[in-house]
């Protein structure tokens, strides 16, 4: 299995490379960034793992098509146009796309959907996410996925209230979304389902970013036996 890591100069790219080198499943490991490609001429790439930037998608699609490679997308922030290109490409090759490669986090996505489907309009729903002080976007891609999962459970879209300030009485049915940035927090996500008498809290905390690299490599092994299509980590977990 020849693996190409797109974004290998980045923190996640280095983590994936370090773990893959210890795994005999991967025969050769190559790296690419927008300005550099380290790959032997003539070698076929079996799978691409991308943790770079949405602007790299065009280059990644070109490499994937040329090699008929399976593709794992761990990048977030894609536009609707980008997502359409990914869906189109998935008709040709297997693609696994996830806002969070942690297996535990994907269990949380399933749990919040189930909880929302049972409680419906009986609770107020709030989502909190915390990350290190260098994270550029807010809310996190995973927080957005939590909200999407909740809305699937509810069977409808809701108003999203990003933070609160001043006179802002809670509207019935809204989903509160809050972002905390500080220190070196790897990632903490929590969904709260609150009524007058009790609260259900479902949370996940990552202790080390290698959990995302490990999940990406699990995904690579999963995709190696899959037909063209668009997959998520839930398909790996069978949930």
Brief overview:
The chain is of the alpha/beta class and 239 residues long.
Characterize the structure shown:
The protein is α/β, with parallel strands linked by helices. Helices cover 34% and strands 26% of the residues. It contains seven helices and twelve strands. It has helices spanning 11-21, 57-67, 80-89, 103-119, 141-154, 210-223, 233-237, and strands at 2-6, 28-33, 36-38, 47-50, 70-73, 94-97, 124-131, 160-162, 175-181, 187-194, 199-206, 229-231. The strands form two sheets. It has a seven-stranded mixed sheet, sandwiched between helices. Strands 8-9-7-10-11 form a five-stranded mixed sheet, covered by helices on one side. The protein starts with a strand and ends with a helix.
Q: What separation lies between the terminal Cα atoms?
A: 27 Å
Given the C-alpha coordinates, what overall shape results?
A: elongated
| Count of extended strands | 12
What characterizes the major β-sheet?
Answer: 7 strands, mixed
Low-confidence stretches: none
Radius of gyration: 19 Å
Provide the fold topology.
Blueprint: E1 2-6, H1 11-21, E2 28-33, E3 36-38, E4 47-50, H2 57-67, E5 70-73, H3 80-89, E6 94-97, H4 103-119, E7 124-131, H5 141-154, E8 160-162, E9 175-181, E10 187-194, E11 199-206, H6 210-223, E12 229-231, H7 233-237
Parallel strand pairs: 1-2, 1-4, 4-5, 5-6, 6-12, 7-9, 8-9
Antiparallel strand pairs: 2-3, 7-10, 10-11
Helix pairs in contact: 1-6, 4-5
């Amino acid at each position: 299995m020849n693996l190409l890591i797109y974004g290998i100069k980045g923190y996640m790219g280095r983590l994936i490379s370090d773990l893959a080198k210890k795994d005999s499943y991967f025969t050769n490991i190559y790296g690419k960034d927008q300005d550099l490609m380290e790959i032997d001429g003539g070698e076929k790439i079996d799978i691409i793992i991308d943790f770079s930037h949405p602007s790299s998608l065009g280059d990644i699609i070109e490499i994937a098509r040329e090699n008929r490679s399976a593709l794992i997308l761990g990048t977030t922030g894609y536009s609707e146009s980008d997502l359409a290109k990914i869906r189109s490409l998935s008709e040709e090759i297997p693609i696994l796309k996830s806002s969070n490669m942690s297996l535990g986090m994907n269990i949380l996505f399933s749990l919040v959907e189930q909880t929302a489907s049972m409680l419906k309009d009986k609770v107020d729903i709030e989502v909190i996410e915390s990350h290190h002080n260098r994270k550029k976007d807010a809310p996190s891609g995973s927080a957005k996925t939590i909200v999407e999962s909740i809305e699937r459970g509810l069977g409808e879209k809701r108003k999203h209230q990003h933070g609160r300030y001043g006179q802002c009485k809670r509207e019935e049915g809204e989903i509160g979304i809050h972002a905390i940035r500080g220190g070196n927090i790897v990632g903490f996500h929590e969904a709260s389902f609150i009524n007058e008498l009790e609260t259900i809290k479902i949370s996940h905390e990552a202790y080390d970013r290698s959990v995302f690299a490990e999940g990406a490599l699990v995904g690579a092994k999963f995709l190696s036996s899959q037909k063209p299509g668009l997959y998520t980590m839930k398909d790996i977990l069978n949930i």
